[in-house]
Fold this sequence. Notes:
The complex is a heterodimer. By secondary structure, chain A is an alpha/beta fold. Chain A has helices at residues 3-19, 36-40, 45-50, 52-66, 75-78, 81-87, 118-123, 125-137, 160-165, 169-201, 215-235, 237-262, 281-301, 318-321, 338-345, 357-362, 365-378, 398-411, and strands spanning 92-95, 98-99, 106-107, 210-211, 266-271, 305-310, 330-333, 350-353, 385-386.
Amino acid sequence: MSSSAQLLQEREKRFNDAVALNKPDRVPIASVWDFFPARFKGHTVKEVMYDPQLMFNDWVECLQHFQPDMGENPYGLRGFARVLDALDYMHLKWAGHGMDDHQGYQFVELEPMKANEYDHFIFDPSDFMIRRFWPRVNKALAAFENLPPINQIIPYYWGLYSGAFLLSPEMEAARGALMEAAKASAEVLKWAGALGAKLKDLGFPASSGGFAQVPFDTLGDLFRGTKGVMMDLFRRPDKVMAACEKLLPIMIDSAVASAKRTGVMRVFIPLHKGLDGFMSDQQFHRFYWPHMKELLNALIREGITPWVLAEGSCNTRLEAFRDVPPGKVIYHFEATDMFKAKEMMRDRCCIRGNVPATLLSVGSPEDVKAYCKKLIDVCGEGGGYIMDASTTLADAKIENVQAMYDFTREYGVYK
Amino acid sequence: MEDLVKAVAEMMEDEALDLTRKLLEQGESPAKILDAYKEALVIIGKRFEEGVYFVPELIMAGEMMKTASELMKPYMAKGSSAAVQAGKKGKFLLGTVAGDIHDIGKDMVGMLLDINGFEVKDLGVDVPVQKFLDEYSAFQPDIVGMSGLLTLAYDSMKRVVDGLKTMGVRDKVKVIIGGGQVDEHACKFVGADAWATDAVSGVKYSLQWMGC
Ligand code: B12
């Protein structure tokens, strides 16, 4: 067996042992790199967002340098600037488009679904997406707002008007934009495939092969906005539930399809609006956890390992989070009390992360090592822990990341 | 009135607004109705501190307050707003700084300051440095409060403070910064007088500065 194939197996095993709550040979370590690799190679965010070849080179060099136990394919979440350009996408600001060249992109909160539009979405999500959601988050598709309902085209005689509308001048520009976006997407996918193969060659298993959200997060982040969805909890709770139920199978199906397509049976699930402070226990158990639990279980049934990134803190949610099959889920914690999490999850789930992003950006390598030591001593005990930063490495100092990796490889070996 | 306080505090929006309308139609004074809302907001603020209420309730309370003041506007006698203002403890200029759009915390601070007797002017989110300075001149606040949750917000905050210095008014105004991530270092870097990671302590500083 070639050494890189061996490496691939070794890493996969180390990682999977930790997930299954067995003791690996040492504590595995991985990162959510954000645009760190560009900075590591002296490039700006803008340069790599627009140049897939440069992104390829920077990621390969960075991963080869740090040798994490999992590789990361950045194209799906970082390499899409030309797609955004083609669509004139409004849900993000990115380098060259409202952000400095060296800054990562930012989410812009919108309200693409108005309070009185729940019924439309619930009745026919696809029609709502095409004629309401897309035109409101993609300026280039604004004309779609005037499309006749596609679901009314049944035989030809009900479809004449709708068909002819596709030829209208207002649709022409939108069609062009859509084709541009499609071409840009194909280009990004080509590079994603190439990098995936390259990383495998180099012995890096892929960290995730798909993405999903808890339905309430999708509804809040992307459809209604934080304020909108929070008020809906009081004003139209039944509609919130109905919309979440509609979104759940969409989340499951798209994540499963993506994992199968990429062959990487891990799915990334960042949590946003169910964190401590965002809702009461009662609200959490009504609007958030039931769908989250079903999402996790559905993925597990398909042989997928959900990697849940609990942003913010989730101390009050740990009890609920425990209620999943043992050894199947990774909970990546940002500001949750990690030692309490270890206590509660010891026999249930692998925990990951918690090296504070602030420590990595303003602390010294010695500070980082001291923190990692504590994590390995307490959370690493008996297995079931993956070393990682609390969140992405966006602002981390290079020498601190080096310290985190060197120290974990040395001190994290299980006797 | 007691029913109104209870309806607002218990998040019963429809009841609260119906009651408000009814009271106004019956000729109740808007000032008294406003007092009921403030009483309710104090209860809500307390429940938030106690961990009984969370972000949804605070957003909802803000919305109810907003709708209620719209309902009351036509009933406000001319001149009475000047009287209300005369009774204010101080003027507070508030906003989320340039580059940052997080406003849930800012809105809560604004609401609590209002309940506590401040005249609050809220400039919204992603407020350009120059806008803060222009509004300073127009509004002449006693306190400038800047909210920011992103690390990059500190630069914007610093530029506002530098601007106040250039205008020669820095010693005439108190500056407080707030947001989940601010700390002593940020405060020093920005050149603010105080920092707060919770609304209540922000209000305490403000009251202290106004000698209350
Ligand atoms: C909700 C949220 C969002 C929502 C905002 C919705 C809205 N309308 O506000 C959305 C989804 C839009 C969002 C977007 C982004 N976010 Co955000 N967001 C949060 C989150 C989860 C909660 C913030 C919040 O509302 N907390 C609840 C309120 C009540 O708390 P608070 O704001 O701290 O306010 C209290 C006090 O601080 C104080 N206070 C606040 N302001 C003031 C002002 C004064 C004068 C005073 C006296 C007191 C005071 O009183 C309040 C009440 O006690 C935090 C994580 C966290 N746990 O804090 C991340 C967080 C702030 N976001 C973050 C990031 C990175 C982003 C994005 C860049 C993400 C992206 N890549 O797209 C974008 C940026 C958009 C922009 N340009 O600002 C980071 C910031 C990291 C950093 N240090 O820079 C955080 C910390 C998450 C993380 N760890 O990565 N976000």
